[in-house]
Protein backbone atom coordinates (compact mmCIF):
# COMPACT_ATOMS: atom_id res chain seq x y z
CA UNK A 1 0.00 0.00 0.00
CA UNK A 2 1.19 3.47 -0.88
CA UNK A 3 1.58 6.05 1.91
CA UNK A 4 -1.03 8.78 1.66
CA UNK A 5 -3.28 6.78 -0.63
CA UNK A 6 -6.80 6.26 0.79
CA UNK A 7 -7.55 2.73 2.02
CA UNK A 8 -11.05 1.33 1.80
CA UNK A 9 -11.89 -1.45 4.23
CA UNK A 10 -14.40 -3.30 2.16
CA UNK A 11 -16.05 -6.65 1.46
CA UNK A 12 -16.81 -7.40 -2.17
CA UNK A 13 -20.42 -8.37 -1.41
CA UNK A 14 -21.19 -5.56 1.04
CA UNK A 15 -23.79 -3.19 -0.37
CA UNK A 16 -22.61 -0.39 1.94
CA UNK A 17 -19.02 -0.79 0.70
CA UNK A 18 -20.29 -0.71 -2.86
CA UNK A 19 -21.89 2.72 -2.25
CA UNK A 20 -18.49 4.12 -1.32
CA UNK A 21 -16.68 2.32 -4.14
CA UNK A 22 -19.05 4.01 -6.61
CA UNK A 23 -18.36 7.44 -5.06
CA UNK A 24 -14.59 6.86 -5.24
CA UNK A 25 -14.87 5.74 -8.86
CA UNK A 26 -17.09 8.65 -9.90
CA UNK A 27 -14.76 11.16 -8.29
CA UNK A 28 -11.69 9.46 -9.77
CA UNK A 29 -10.06 8.88 -6.37
CA UNK A 30 -7.33 6.27 -6.46
CA UNK A 31 -7.35 3.98 -3.40
CA UNK A 32 -6.23 0.64 -2.05
CA UNK A 33 -8.66 -2.01 -0.89
CA UNK A 34 -8.16 -3.72 2.47
CA UNK A 35 -10.52 -6.70 2.30
CA UNK A 36 -12.50 -7.54 5.44
CA UNK A 37 -14.16 -10.91 4.95
CA UNK A 38 -17.46 -10.81 6.85
CA UNK A 39 -17.77 -14.63 6.87
CA UNK A 40 -14.24 -16.07 7.05
CA UNK A 41 -12.61 -16.74 10.46
CA UNK A 42 -16.00 -16.11 12.12
CA UNK A 43 -16.05 -12.64 10.54
CA UNK A 44 -12.93 -10.48 10.25
CA UNK A 45 -15.03 -7.42 11.21
CA UNK A 46 -14.85 -8.75 14.78
CA UNK A 47 -11.04 -8.74 14.94
CA UNK A 48 -9.44 -6.39 17.48
CA UNK A 49 -7.52 -4.76 14.66
CA UNK A 50 -10.66 -3.88 12.70
CA UNK A 51 -12.69 -2.88 15.77
CA UNK A 52 -10.01 -0.31 16.52
CA UNK A 53 -10.84 1.23 13.14
CA UNK A 54 -14.60 0.87 13.33
CA UNK A 55 -16.11 0.00 16.70
CA UNK A 56 -19.41 -0.79 14.90
CA UNK A 57 -17.67 -3.86 13.42
CA UNK A 58 -19.03 -3.11 9.99
CA UNK A 59 -17.64 -2.22 6.58
CA UNK A 60 -17.02 0.15 4.97
CA UNK A 61 -14.41 2.28 6.68
CA UNK A 62 -12.22 4.67 4.76
CA UNK A 63 -8.76 5.77 5.83
CA UNK A 64 -8.23 9.14 4.21
CA UNK A 65 -6.52 12.46 4.96
CA UNK A 66 -5.08 11.16 8.24
CA UNK A 67 -8.32 9.84 9.69
CA UNK A 68 -10.63 6.86 9.46
CA UNK A 69 -14.34 7.33 8.73
CA UNK A 70 -17.07 4.74 9.16
CA UNK A 71 -20.67 4.90 7.90
CA UNK A 72 -21.03 4.97 4.14
CA UNK A 73 -23.13 8.13 3.93
CA UNK A 74 -20.76 10.07 6.20
CA UNK A 75 -17.88 8.91 3.99
CA UNK A 76 -19.68 9.98 0.82
CA UNK A 77 -20.54 13.38 2.31
CA UNK A 78 -16.89 13.88 3.34
CA UNK A 79 -15.72 13.02 -0.17
CA UNK A 80 -18.31 15.42 -1.53
CA UNK A 81 -17.10 18.26 0.68
CA UNK A 82 -13.40 17.68 0.04
CA UNK A 83 -13.51 16.49 -3.58
CA UNK A 84 -16.61 18.15 -4.98
CA UNK A 85 -16.28 17.12 -8.61
CA UNK A 86 -18.46 15.64 -9.99
CA UNK A 87 -21.08 16.64 -7.48
CA UNK A 88 -23.17 13.91 -5.85
CA UNK A 89 -25.45 16.30 -3.98
CA UNK A 90 -27.39 18.83 -6.06
CA UNK A 91 -26.86 22.52 -5.46
CA UNK A 92 -30.58 23.19 -4.95
CA UNK A 93 -31.45 22.62 -1.24
CA UNK A 94 -34.80 21.03 -2.08
CA UNK A 95 -33.19 18.51 -4.41
CA UNK A 96 -30.44 17.88 -1.83
CA UNK A 97 -33.12 17.09 0.73
CA UNK A 98 -34.73 14.61 -1.67
CA UNK A 99 -31.37 12.95 -2.31
CA UNK A 100 -30.74 12.63 1.43
CA UNK A 101 -34.29 11.39 2.03
CA UNK A 102 -33.88 8.57 -0.50
CA UNK A 103 -30.37 7.75 0.74
CA UNK A 104 -31.61 7.52 4.33
CA UNK A 105 -34.64 5.50 3.31
CA UNK A 106 -32.32 2.85 1.89
CA UNK A 107 -29.37 3.16 4.28
CA UNK A 108 -31.49 3.51 7.43
CA UNK A 109 -34.84 1.96 6.52
CA UNK A 110 -34.02 -1.07 4.39
CA UNK A 111 -30.41 -2.29 4.50
CA UNK A 112 -30.03 -2.52 8.31
CA UNK A 113 -33.09 -4.81 8.50
CA UNK A 114 -31.53 -7.32 6.13
CA UNK A 115 -27.93 -6.99 7.28
CA UNK A 116 -26.02 -10.12 8.25
CA UNK A 117 -25.97 -9.43 11.99
CA UNK A 118 -29.75 -8.88 12.06
CA UNK A 119 -30.53 -11.91 9.90
CA UNK A 120 -28.46 -14.00 12.30
CA UNK A 121 -30.97 -13.10 15.04
CA UNK A 122 -33.81 -14.50 12.93
CA UNK A 123 -34.65 -18.20 12.83
CA UNK A 124 -32.81 -19.70 9.86
CA UNK A 125 -35.94 -20.82 8.01
CA UNK A 126 -37.49 -17.37 8.35
CA UNK A 127 -34.49 -15.39 7.12
CA UNK A 128 -35.34 -15.23 3.43
CA UNK A 129 -38.95 -14.14 4.09
CA UNK A 130 -37.71 -11.57 6.64
CA UNK A 131 -35.26 -10.02 4.18
CA UNK A 132 -37.81 -10.07 1.36
CA UNK A 133 -40.38 -8.28 3.52
CA UNK A 134 -37.89 -5.62 4.64
CA UNK A 135 -36.83 -4.93 1.06
CA UNK A 136 -40.26 -4.98 -0.53
CA UNK A 137 -41.87 -2.73 2.05
CA UNK A 138 -39.00 -0.26 1.62
CA UNK A 139 -39.22 -0.55 -2.17
CA UNK A 140 -42.99 0.15 -2.06
CA UNK A 141 -42.20 3.49 -0.43
CA UNK A 142 -39.22 4.17 -2.67
CA UNK A 143 -41.16 3.50 -5.89
CA UNK A 144 -43.88 5.93 -4.74
CA UNK A 145 -41.28 8.60 -3.94
CA UNK A 146 -39.44 8.12 -7.23
CA UNK A 147 -42.68 8.75 -9.13
CA UNK A 148 -42.29 12.35 -8.00
CA UNK A 149 -38.50 12.79 -8.00
CA UNK A 150 -37.02 10.68 -10.78
CA UNK A 151 -35.75 11.79 -14.13
CA UNK A 152 -33.16 9.56 -15.70
CA UNK A 153 -31.93 8.77 -12.16
CA UNK A 154 -33.40 8.95 -8.63
CA UNK A 155 -33.54 12.75 -8.46
CA UNK A 156 -33.58 14.38 -11.86
CA UNK A 157 -31.06 13.54 -14.54
CA UNK A 158 -27.78 13.72 -12.58
CA UNK A 159 -26.23 10.82 -10.66
CA UNK A 160 -26.50 11.55 -6.94
CA UNK A 161 -25.80 9.87 -3.59
CA UNK A 162 -29.32 8.37 -3.79
CA UNK A 163 -28.27 6.40 -6.87
CA UNK A 164 -25.20 5.11 -5.02
CA UNK A 165 -27.60 3.62 -2.48
CA UNK A 166 -30.14 2.33 -4.98
CA UNK A 167 -27.98 0.03 -7.12
CA UNK A 168 -26.43 -1.98 -4.26
CA UNK A 169 -29.86 -2.33 -2.64
CA UNK A 170 -31.34 -3.71 -5.87
CA UNK A 171 -28.44 -6.19 -5.95
CA UNK A 172 -29.42 -7.27 -2.43
CA UNK A 173 -33.03 -7.61 -3.60
CA UNK A 174 -31.80 -9.91 -6.33
CA UNK A 175 -29.72 -11.92 -3.87
CA UNK A 176 -32.77 -12.40 -1.65
CA UNK A 177 -34.95 -13.26 -4.68
CA UNK A 178 -37.32 -10.31 -4.27
CA UNK A 179 -39.81 -9.93 -7.12
CA UNK A 180 -38.96 -6.48 -8.50
CA UNK A 181 -41.67 -6.45 -11.17
CA UNK A 182 -43.87 -4.15 -9.00
CA UNK A 183 -41.04 -1.56 -9.10
CA UNK A 184 -40.63 -0.42 -12.73
CA UNK A 185 -39.01 2.94 -11.86
CA UNK A 186 -36.47 1.38 -9.47
CA UNK A 187 -35.68 -1.26 -12.10
CA UNK A 188 -35.30 1.25 -14.93
CA UNK A 189 -32.99 3.53 -12.93
CA UNK A 190 -30.95 0.53 -11.80
CA UNK A 191 -30.45 -0.60 -15.40
CA UNK A 192 -29.37 2.88 -16.54
CA UNK A 193 -26.88 3.22 -13.67
CA UNK A 194 -25.38 -0.23 -14.16
CA UNK A 195 -24.41 0.81 -17.67
CA UNK A 196 -22.09 3.51 -16.27
CA UNK A 197 -18.37 2.78 -15.82
CA UNK A 198 -18.22 3.79 -12.15
CA UNK A 199 -20.95 1.31 -11.28
CA UNK A 200 -19.22 -1.44 -13.22
CA UNK A 201 -15.68 -1.06 -11.84
CA UNK A 202 -17.08 -0.96 -8.31
CA UNK A 203 -19.30 -4.03 -8.87
CA UNK A 204 -19.07 -6.88 -6.32
CA UNK A 205 -18.05 -9.22 -9.14
CA UNK A 206 -14.93 -7.18 -9.90
CA UNK A 207 -13.20 -6.52 -6.59
CA UNK A 208 -9.73 -7.63 -5.45
CA UNK A 209 -11.40 -9.90 -2.86
CA UNK A 210 -14.05 -11.35 -5.19
CA UNK A 211 -13.64 -15.14 -5.17
CA UNK A 212 -12.96 -16.59 -8.65
CA UNK A 213 -16.33 -18.38 -8.80
CA UNK A 214 -18.17 -15.08 -8.21
CA UNK A 215 -16.24 -12.91 -10.66
CA UNK A 216 -18.38 -11.09 -13.20
N1 LIG B 1 -24.87 2.23 8.34
C1 LIG B 1 -23.68 1.52 7.96
C2 LIG B 1 -24.02 0.06 7.79
C3 LIG B 1 -22.81 -0.79 7.52
C4 LIG B 1 -23.18 -2.26 7.38
O1 LIG B 1 -24.29 -2.71 7.71
N2 LIG B 1 -22.23 -3.02 6.85
C5 LIG B 1 -22.44 -4.43 6.67
C6 LIG B 1 -22.10 -4.85 5.27
S1 LIG B 1 -23.13 -4.00 4.06
C7 LIG B 1 -21.54 -5.18 7.62
O2 LIG B 1 -20.39 -4.86 7.78
N3 LIG B 1 -22.06 -6.25 8.25
C8 LIG B 1 -21.30 -7.04 9.16
C9 LIG B 1 -22.13 -7.77 10.15
O3 LIG B 1 -23.37 -7.65 10.12
O4 LIG B 1 -21.55 -8.47 10.99
C10 LIG B 1 -23.10 2.14 6.68
O5 LIG B 1 -23.88 2.73 5.92
O6 LIG B 1 -21.90 2.07 6.46
Automatic annotation (TrEMBL):
What highest taxon heads this organism's lineage?
A: Eukaryota
> Which GO terms label this protein's molecular function in UniProt?
glutathione transferase activity; maleylacetoacetate isomerase activity
Principal location: cytoplasm
Q: Which GO terms describe its biological process?
A: glutathione metabolic process; L-phenylalanine catabolic process; L-tyrosine catabolic process
Under InterPro entries, the record lists: Glutathione-S-Trfase_C-like, Glutathione-S-Trfase_C_sf, Glutathione_S-Trfase, Glutathione_S-Trfase_N, GST_Zeta, GST_Zeta_C, GST_Zeta_N, Thioredoxin-like_sf
Identify the keywords attached in UniProt to this record, alphabetized.
Cytoplasm, Isomerase, Phenylalanine catabolism, Transferase, Tyrosine catabolism
Q: Sorted alphabetically, which Gene3D superfamilies does this protein's record hold? A: 1.20.1050.10, Glutaredoxin
Domain GST C-terminal, residue spans: 92-212
Q: Which protein family is it in? A: Belongs to the GST superfamily. Zeta family.
| Reactions mediated catalytically | 4-maleylacetoacetate = 4-fumarylacetoacetate; RX + glutathione = an S-substituted glutathione + a halide anion + H(+)
Q: What is its EC number?
A: 2.5.1.18, 5.2.1.2
Q: What is this protein called?
A: Maleylacetoacetate isomerase
The GST N-terminal domain is annotated at: 4-87
Task: Name the coiled-coil region(s).
Answer: none
Query: Which biological pathway?
Result: Amino-acid degradation; L-phenylalanine degradation; acetoacetate and fumarate from L-phenylalanine: step 5/6
Keyword ATP-binding attributed: no
According to its UniProt record, where is this protein located?
A: Cytoplasm
What does the record give as cofactor?
Answer: glutathione
